Amino acid sequence: MLLIAGPWPLRKTNRNIPEPDPTGHLPTAEGHLPSVWKPSRIGAVPLPVFVGLVAIFDIILPPPAQLGSGLRFEPAYLNAILYTLFVSLTSFLVAYISLKSYLQTGSIVLLLLGSASLALGSTSILGTWLANLPGELNAGITIVNTGALCASIFHLAGGSLTTTGTSLESGPRVRKPLSLVAYTGVLSFTTLFTIASLESLVPLFFVLGVGQTPLRMAVVGSSAALFGVSSILFAKLCFSSKSDTLYWYFLALGMTAVGTLAIFFGRAPGDPISWTGRAAQFLGGFYFLKAVLTAFRRPHPR
Amino acid sequence: MLRGGFMPGDAVMIAGSAGMGKTTLGLQYLVNGIRLGEPGVYVTFEELPDQIYRDARNFGWDLRKMEEEGKFRVVCTSPDLMLESDKDSLLDDVLQDVQPRRIVIDSLSHLEMFVEKAAMRKETYRLIMHLKTRGVSSLLLWESPQISGPSFAVTDAGLSFLVDCIVALKPVEIESSLRKALVILKMRGSDHDKRLREYEITPEGIKVSAPFTEYEGLMSGSPRRSITEDAANSWALAFAKNKQKHS
Fold first, then answer.
1. Which residue from A minimizes the CA distance to B247?
2. What's the complex ipTM?
3. Residue of chain B minimizing CA distance to A158
4. In this predicted structure, what is the pLDDT of residue A229?
């Protein structure tokens, strides 16, 4: 048996494996085990809470025609300000980082996510502010709801491509023009749709004193379902890849789904259900921000 | 980058370490001048004319033909001969003969072998003024071993103050490969581009491309992606992880 002489601790091999001491005893190897992924559990708590609140309010609240004014709270511009801060700005941030990522990698998924966020952000900011103008409540609601539907379709497409492992990548030369087409397309659609809504060229989504139309229910219901499915797809990805970014992203999509679902069950703008939904969407916006911030964390030097 | 090119009659210093393409840039400057009807002179202290002709031919520049047409001249000499101040000096002979509008001196660093460090600034000043008074734009190549750090000097002889423009050529290591960066450090009378740009030595000569906008700390010698580029990369990785697992 070869005995290694010399002071302890003994030198190590080039594989960084500690060599045994003269008695054949192996010291503990240096190094760290990879840290266990611990997603924030508190972050997930509001999701079922909001679902529960929507369900409770739906049970206890009277139908739209019997809803008293005391059950509505809708100060002018408050909703627009909150949407701008918590939905639009965070969506623009996601659109920006997704664009930068797309230009780096050419992954179509990132372009879809960016387009989704841009659609959500631009229609939210336009729709909520327009809704405050006299006689434009329907136009505002139409723009916000349609934007949400577009965003949910883009998210579902992105989530499906990633989950199925479909590799759709564009070459370096087409990235800039393609992203320009996508983002300009989204903004052009938002602009044209806004004009169409203001000119009453789009079928009614909401009638004051009556409530939402079947068209709005279909649009909102579809959006909520698509956001929900997208959230599940990204949740699946998140738990397989143990990514903090995806964790907050799937929760954000989940909160947006709950927020959209609340509109479906809402009696009138400003009622407890609609505020529950709005709160869920605002928290969703904060979660989008959290997702972006996790990407900004530089890895610790090893 | 220069907002319209070098100013006529200016003295321009091209500073860079070995292999950065100083000679190529110098020759390209002269060839472009000749195409614009400005005769040029190339003064070299280290290469023989045949080497210059051969290297230029690789870029498609027929210097021999240009020389025959009286538009170009290669002067292979030693720095002490060039610095002679009498009327019939080698440099004056060439200037009178070719009537150049452009001249390249490859390289000014060789003067240090013949001139004491304290006199280097004076001799360079004399040379620059000599060329300026004759209306010749000069490109002075300078071998600088390293241009990096938050504060640095291109030369330690104070020559930076004598020239009108300084172009620094610098190798940068990015993701384990060596790339070439170019930056205008100084240009009198011009609001020049301040960004570091990548350049390549192509079969047609030096081609300047996009700025290194994705990186920061290039001049310090330890470049890294800018924080937004890093974040975008992390973002892309997060959404690409599943694809890696599938592959």
1. A165
2. 0.77
3. B239
4. 97
